[in-house]
Amino acid sequence: MTERVPMVPETEATGRVAALYERVRAATGLPFVPDVFRLASTTPNLLEVVVGGYTNVFADSALPRDTKELVAAWTSRLNDCGYCTAAHSWFLQQFGGSAELADAITSSTRIEDLPVDERTAALLRLTEKVTTGVPDVDTEWTEAARGWSQEELLEAVFCAALFAFINRLVTTLGLAAPTPEPAP
């Protein structure tokens, strides 16, 4: 798949775009700017929305980072966004999630197939409804609230909603999942 919009290379970024790229590198801890951010690089106002959403959702807060990565990866899987599923399954492992869970996310279509406890499954059922746009979340909210604080639930909902948005950008603008290099 080819990107449908031009992307500013890091070496050519100036002014506001260069500053936003630096925020991305600082927030991700990566030595480069992932393509998902570069998709909006020719329009700094839009790039700022993506950078702000990402940095604020993944900031230190009530919900643990590995749980946020799980929500981001599962949301991306449900939205059939290979790029974000791969990226956030990798981040999940970097922040303490197991390789077994990361692998299950890429191949499963049901929460019941994921190696998670019931508390986490309840949170994923809530965020799945957010992801699929089902407005009736009363049952899922009540079940998830038994194991998570109100602040954690709000953060999980924001994370799922943000990734539904980012998934749409990535798939609509043509960013493909990275393909593994063939073994020698």
TrEMBL record:
Residues 44-102 form the Carboxymuconolactone decarboxylase-like domain. GO terms for molecular function: peroxiredoxin activity. InterPro entries: AhpD-like, AhpD_core, CMD-like, Uncharacterised_peroxidase-rel. Keywords: Oxidoreductase, Peroxidase. The keyword Oxidoreductase applies. This is Uncharacterized peroxidase-related enzyme. It comes from Actinokineospora terrae.
